[in-house]
Amino acid sequence: MKDKFAVQRERMVQEQLIRRGIKDRRVIEAFLKVPRHLFVDRAYLDEAYNDYPLPIGYGQTISQPYMVAIMLERAELEPHHRVLEIGTGSGYQTALLAEIVKEVYSVERIPQLAERAREVLESLGDENVKIKTGDGTLGWEEFAPYDRIIVTAGAPKIPEPLKEQLSPEGGKLLIPVGPRYSQVLYIVTRRGDEYEIEKDSPCVFVPLIGEEGWEE
Ligand code: SAM
Fold this sequence. Notes:
Helix content is 27%, strand content 25%.
């Protein structure tokens, strides 16, 4: 059954994603399906499908839909993939990933956000997701290697543990890298012990705070 936000969701997909060049069918289907309004604070319910990031508490944000779509499209996701996400935040991108790939592992440093995201994802019946609280700059060694690692916060440099936890058979790491208030999306592809770095779009993310990231 369609929820009352379905029309807003379709408009978001058409005007903010497809019109700007997003083409990946799996990404588009996931955006049409996942109820973004469940991941925003009640105070912002009317703005849930708007073209900008929104506050989610604790100084953090749910990213602009288009930025999330760019990252997911650039990740070239396949249904059999195992994906590590760093920065669960609201859990919205986690839910999109859960629609597209087989297994999603997500690390969030703020316990209250991790807990809230876990509750919403459980209410949606997403069973292929594991969330933990911790420092994602160290990755999540237990379930490595990953086909894709997607970092949703801005890093001063590429954390070594994330490179090491990438699959050596074409694993890709997507991470915003640069100064604290403006970054460039880096796409790092691993083949054996070789890492190829491609610099993609400019972007602005909250800082990645941790041992291999920024100081608090
Ligand atoms: N993709 C998220 C969404 O859809 O809501 C938005 C994520 S928000 C832009 C970035 C998140 O990264 C914040 O929740 C922040 O607490 C988290 N974060 C920052 N440093 C982190 C770290 N070292 N490990 C895990 N999470 C971190």
